Amino acid sequence: MKIYMLTVTRDADGKSGLFNIACKKIFYIESDSEKKRVIVHTHNEEYYMMGTLKYWSVVLNASGYKFLSADRNILVNIGSIKVLNRMTKEVLFEIELMKRTKKCVIAFYKYEKYERFIIDINPDIVIVK
Predict the structure, then answer these.
(1) pTM of the prediction?
(2) For every one of its 129 residues, what pLDDT tens digit does the chain have, with 9 covering 90 and above?
(3) Helices vs strands, H then E, count in the chain
(4) How many CB atoms lie within 10 A of CB 14?
């Protein structure tokens, strides 16, 4: 798959200027609907882009990535998921749980439907029961 880059800023107001990040490094994207932008979460940082989750979901999936609407305000990069926690309905992006481990919730009503889909795409995921 071709590696695509996104142009983002490091601060919400854009004063830091523009930076490029690889789409494959994204863990999840969170909506900031009040400001009509999204927050892009990677391993160590958060970045900002204009637009809606719906728009970015279409763009990223059309580019060959697998992003899933985990909740009404979160898109998860399935390829970045390392652990699925069935009890808490959380996805974690690192195997070892540490203080700064990034994680997010899949809506309870979506979890069962999405679990099989996620495992089919990313079979190396660890399942916590």
Answers:
(1) 0.92
(2) 788 999 999 999 999 999 999 999 999 999 997 888 999 999 999 999 999 999 999 999 999 999 999 999 999 999 999 999 999 999 999 988 777 889 999 999 999 899 999 999 989 999 998
(3) 2, 11
(4) 13
Q: Where are the domains of the chain?
A: 5-128
* SS (HEC) of 61-123: HHCCCCEEEEECCEEEEHHHCCEEECCCCEEECCCCCCCCCCEEECCHHHHHHHHHHHHHHCC
Fold of 5-128: OB fold (Dihydrolipoamide Acetyltransferase, E2P) (2.40.50)
Tokens 């029961």: give the residue.
129
